[in-house]
Design a protein that fits this description.
Two copies of one chain form a homodimer. Chain A contains eight helices and no strands. In chain A, helix 7 runs antiparallel to helix 8. The first copy, chain A, has 182 residues and is mainly α. Chain A is elongated and about 60 Å long. The N and C termini of chain A lie far apart (59 Å). The longest helix of chain A has 25 residues. At the A-B interface, helix 5, helix 7 and helix 8 of A face helix 5, helix 7 and helix 8 of B. The structure holds a DNA duplex (19 and 19 nucleotides).
Chain lengths: 182, 182
DNA sequence: ACCTGAACACCGTTCAAGT
DNA sequence: ACCTGAACACCGTTCAAGT
């Protein structure tokens, strides 16, 4: 059988959601695809590259249309979108953190937040650190959410108690940013 | 030869600093101690427990006297202390993040920050989320610092350009908190 | 109590050789 | 180009048996 990159990534996403990040091994993924482990290295240079592709896929799936209103509403929307993308899949936050730490992945929500802050006429320092801080907040917060309840959550269950915590934490950072815009 | 828990942890800290988190394996640590791999399991139930002990050791070493002045100065001090504890050792932030994610480790800076906010008469929500957000900020920020420069940094080189970024990010969150303390 | 010896059940990665 | 077969160089962990 023949597989394209996208097929491998799709399988990997499904497998991640089922067995978690620790269970997602090259050997088991190959087995699911009915292929030898070594075959995966024809599509990806190594496991980190595969994980980066999985992360990009999750972020792309979670992408929504952005209505530009105000800088803070837009940042909030990007952060909620990012959170939902990670919550859509078991260990999503841990995966994103790992890929980000390695400097891999094409889709870059931090850059997006940086751009929003630039457009709001923030100093470059403020924009850079603001975007970074927001990213760390979201990844850190969702990591914590996914420790307790590792199962994927349905869209209906999205209004969990954690959501309030998330928005409160987000407001903390956004309020801090507001004080530094002009 | 006989080893106490503390000896094993000390060796593990030194090894972590030299070879990084990926290089710190049970087998290599055992080899450095001149002992069989299985012997380590007499002192620690598993690798995560060992890593938790290492994290606790790093945090304990970094502990300084806290002069209680104002809530924000104290929080800033706790965060700087936490950052320095992680910067003192290669991959310190990644280690802390992992141990925290597993809910292990005795020393808990988040609890300490929570207490400070409580004393400042913050609502329980604000105190809880404030402490969590600060912890995520520090761990996330330092992780990023240690990606670029994985070598341990001397105390003299602590005033790196990253320090300014750190304090700016910290101020963002602290300012947000200030608005929620009556 | 503390450690050895030796195994068990895995990993990621490489690479000649096949089609 | 894409995959197989088979290996290489590792892991964490367990556990009878020794002292």
């Amino acid at each position: 059988m023949r597989y394209r990159r996208a097929d491998v990534v799709d399988r990997a996403v499904g497998m991640l959601d089922r067995v978690g990040l620790d269970g997602l091994t090259m050997r088991k993924l190959a087995a699911e695809l009915g292929v030898q482990p070594g075959a995966l290295y024809h599509h990806f240079t190594n496991k980190d590259a595969l994980l980066a592709a999985v992360a990009d896929e999750l972020l792309t799936r979670g992408r929504r249309a952005t209505e530009i209103v105000t800088w803070d509403a837009e940042l909030r929307l990007v952060c909620v979108e990012l959170r939902d993308a990670m919550l859509a899949c078991r260990d999503g936050a841990t995966l994103l953190a790992r890929v980000h730490a390695l400097g891999l992945g094409e889709v870059d929500p931090e850059q997006r937040m940086y751009d929003v802050l630039q457009r709001a006429a923030a100093d470059d320092d403020v924009a850079r650190i603001g975007a970074r801080t927001l990213l760390h907040f979201v990844v850190g917060h969702v990591s914590e959410e996914q420790v307790a309840r590792p199962e994927p959550r349905s869209a209906a269950a999205a209004a969990a108690p954690e959501s309030g915590d998330f928005h409160l934490g987000l407001s903390l950072v956004l309020d801090g940013l507001r004080q530094r815009l002009r």
